[in-house]
Specification:
The strands form four sheets. Strands 10-11-21-22-18-15-14 form a seven-stranded mixed sheet, with no helix packed on it. The longest helix has 12 residues. The radius of gyration is 21 Å and the shape is globular. It is built from two helices and 23 strands. The protein starts with a strand and ends in a 7-residue tail after the last strand. The chain folds into two domains: about 140 residues, Nitrilase/N-carbamoyl-D-aminoacid amidohydrolase (4-Layer Sandwich); about 150 residues, no CATH class. The chain is mainly beta. Helices cover about 5% and strands about 40% of the residues. A hairpin with a 2-residue loop joins β14 and β15. Belongs to the carbon-nitrogen hydrolase superfamily. BTD/VNN family. Its EC number is 3.5.1.12. Catalytic release of biotin from biocytin, the product of biotin-dependent carboxylases degradation. It catalyses: biocytin + H2O = biotin + L-lysine. InterPro entries: Biotinidase/VNN (IPR040154), C-N_Hydrolase (IPR003010), C-N_Hydrolase_sf (IPR036526), Vanin_C (IPR043957).
């Protein structure tokens, strides 16, 4: 909802007070069951919202419940930034409420894809409610905990109607850095203090690392293609199994893959790396490892939007990041989320995601690193 706040022209700096003496904020509110207003957040990161002002200071807004402890509020574009999202989590809040009007941005920032990625990467519960507007490609809501995802993502042609999602989620208590969590789904999450590979079973992928291998495997040729308006360095996936490395500057990504036997699918895949500042429709610094299905049979189609795929992959995707804020996701054909089998972060910044036995074809597997500390450089 909109919130009108008086701005005293005489006492406020002219740089923050509008000339008409009032602020108009995009506002997220929470009410108690008896109707009492318990929380109000003014959105800090605006996205083409000319009717609204940016608050003079970012706000950390929480409220307590008798049934599940403390919740924090954020709104739409806020989710990509340190303020208020990470600031909330660093204050100990692990349950976030997220109303949004989010335009799907494949292949890396589809609505449910990033909602799930934040929940997994930050080890939090996220209650996300998106508006439904097919013309603006806005659809996709969900209830996400580190252990489960209950979501709905309307497809083209689906009726224009709301969907009520109900899920039982755990009450998450503040988590100290370095504490490991075993999930209900058998996915082991670890914030380990060693820099060794995680995989010790005989049937696991070999856990070699980008820095110790050559930057690119000898048979591979890198090329640059635009993905989400950023210039990714790619290398094509050839054959039914193998290992690949690709680097953007000193940032490198490593992939081990095994394509499952199937009909005569000729889908093209690539491994991409990007380290830099995204500057289109927002400015934020990134390090990204992405294993993506290309839109066509030419290398130039890698990085374009794809919603469907037939090829199922077992894979291990890994990078060494300059941030501990890395958000993992696996998106299968027709916008279906998959729960990674294994995630691990080491103290040295290495993040590993391993997955197999996919239920659908692989559209995107991504480790999306946010370099919040470089946003203003």
């Amino acid at each position: 909802m909109g919130d009108l706040q008086p701005c005293p022209l005489k006492t406020s700096p002219s740089s923050t007070c509008p000339s008409d003496g009032r602020w108009q904020f995009n506002t997220n509110v929470a009410f108690r069951s008896d109707g009492q207003l318990v929380a109000r957040l003014h959105k800090y990161n605006l996205y083409f919202e000319e009717a609204f002002d940016t608050p003079p200071q970012p706000e950390i807004v929480t409220f307590d419940t008798p049934f599940a402890g403390r919740f924090g509020l954020l709104t739409c574009f806020d989710i990509l930034f340190y303020q208020p999202t990470v600031a909330l989590m660093e204050s100990g809040v692990r349950q976030l409420i997220f109303p949004t009007a989010w335009m799907n941005q494949l292949p890396l920032l589809d609505t449910i894809q990033f909602q799930r990625a934040l929940s997994l990467g930050a080890n939090i519960t996220l209650l996300a409610a998106n508006i439904r507007n097919d013309q603006l490609i806005m659809t996709g809501s969900g209830i996400y905990s580190p252990f489960s995802a209950t979501y709905h993502h309307a497809q083209k042609g689906d009726p224009e109607e709301g969907r009520l999602l109900v899920a039982r989620v755990p009450v998450l208590k503040p988590l100290s850095v370095g504490q490991s969590v075993a999930t209900e789904e058998g996915v082991v999450r670890a914030e380990s203090n060693t820099d060794s590979g995680y995989c010790h079973q005989e049937n696991c992928f070999d856990s070699s690392h980008p820095e110790t291998a050559s930057a690119v495997s000898p048979s591979s040729v890198t090329f640059v293609s635009s993905m989400m308006y950023d210039s990714f360095t790619f290398v094509l996936v050839n054959g039914t199994e193998g290992k690949l490395n690709v680097c953007d500057g000193t940032f490198c990504c490593h992939l081990q893959y095994r394509q499952l036997p199937q009909g005569g699918s000729k889908e093209l895949y690539a491994l991409g790396a990007f380290a830099g500042t995204h500057t289109v429709n927002g400015r934020y610094a990134l390090q990204v490892c992405a294993f993506v299905r290309c839109a066509g049979s030419e290398a130039s189609s890698c990085g374009q939007e794809v919603e469907e795929a037939e090829t199922k992959m077992d894979f291990l995707l890994e990078g060494k990041f300059g941030t501990r804020y890395v958000y993992p996701s696996v998106l299968a054909s027709q916008l279906v989320l998959e729960q990674p089998e294994h995630l691990e972060k080491t103290a040295g910044g290495r993040v590993t995601m391993k997955h197999s036995n996919m239920t659908g074809g692989l559209v995107t597997a991504v480790l999306y690193g946010r370099m919040y500390h470089l946003d203003n450089e």
